[in-house]
Amino acid sequence: MKYQEIIFEEKGSVAYLTLNRPDIRNAITGEIIIKEIEEACQRVQENNDMSAMIVTGAGSAFSAGGNVKDMYHKQGMFSGNPEQLRKNYRKGIQRIPLALYYLDVPTIAAVNGPAMGAGCDLACMCDIRIASQTARFGETFVSVGLIPGDGGTFFLPRIIGFSKACELAFTCRVIDAHESERIGLVSEVTAPENLIARCTEIAFEIAKQPSNILRLAKRLFNLSQGRSLEEVLELSAAYQALCHHTPEHKKAVEKLILSQKKQKKSD
């Protein structure tokens, strides 16, 4: 499949999704790029051989978020009266958080530069974030007279805590890669030239695990958010019952038993 505004590649069991509009700093509010991100996520979801997906941006920015020119001219998804705008969000950019949230394959954001507004939220929609030293993050909606309209109030507090998320959203303060690592927004910071290689290393480390079990584990982590302990334990019991009857579990246990027997003989 040919894409106009993203680059999509599959290398072994790892997929790479690159926002490819460096001319507008990878703004993600146009219908084409939204549809292509959605379709790429669906493609990965339906391919049982895929075990991880890396999301990054072409050029010097991860994503500048919304297209300010479109906002100014009230065109595209920013056109219409309030009721129409509400529909535009629901039928437009809000498809991205849903596509990533319901993607059972683990995702890694390779944040190669500024991630502002919806760009920051896009990084937060991924399960793991690795930042280049040139990355910057800003939950900057309020500074342009808006609120996070794409799920930022759902994702950001779950990553860095409610108080810190409120601080960043209310002050619109832009933070660098190292502060992002300190507050837990990203897992680690690496040199720009090593970013994709490091994310690929993590992705293939993930890909060593059974892909169907990885998908169950990610879904359980997502479903566990906001539920009671009793509900989580019930979900865990149901998922674990499925896992006990997979060939991957049987093979792993047999390997462990064989290893224990060899160790016992050597002792």
Describe what you observe in this structure:
The chain has helices at 31-46, 68-73, 82-91, 95-101, 118-125, 152-160, 162-171, 177-182, 195-207, 211-224, 229-243, 247-266, and strands at 6-11, 14-19, 52-57, 107-111, 114-116, 128-132, 136-138, 175-176, 188-190. The protein has two domains: 6-207, 2-enoyl-CoA Hydratase, Chain A, domain 1, CATH 3.90.226; 227-266. Helices cover 50% and strands 15% of the residues. The N and C termini lie far apart (57 Å). It contains twelve helices and nine strands. The radius of gyration is 20 Å and the shape is globular. The strands form two sheets. Strands 1-2-3-4-6-9 form a six-stranded mixed sheet, with helices on both faces. Strands 5-7-8 form a three-stranded mixed sheet. It is α/β, with parallel strands linked by helices. The longest helix is centred in the last third of the chain and has 20 residues, at 247-266.
Keywords:
267 residues, alpha/beta, three-stranded mixed β-sheet, 12 helices, 9 strands, 50% helix, globular
Describe how the helices and strands are arranged:
Layout: E1 6-11, E2 14-19, H1 31-46, E3 52-57, H2 68-73, H3 82-91, H4 95-101, E4 107-111, E5 114-116, H5 118-125, E6 128-132, E7 136-138, H6 152-160, H7 162-171, E8 175-176, H8 177-182, E9 188-190, H9 195-207, H10 211-224, H11 229-243, H12 247-266
Parallel strand pairs: 2-3, 3-4, 4-6, 5-7, 6-9
Antiparallel strand pairs: 1-2, 7-8
Helix pairs in contact: 1-4, 5-6, 6-7, 10-11
The overall number of domains is 2
What is the element string, with H for helices and E for strands? Answer: EEHEHHHEEHEEHHEHEHHHH
Shape: globular
- Radius of gyration (Å): 20 Å
- The tally of helices reads 12
**For the report, how would you describe the main beta sheet?**
6 strands, mixed
Structural class: alpha/beta
Helix content: 40-55%
Q: What's the CATH topology name of the largest domain?
A: 2-enoyl-CoA Hydratase, Chain A, domain 1
Instruction: Report the strand count.
Output: 9
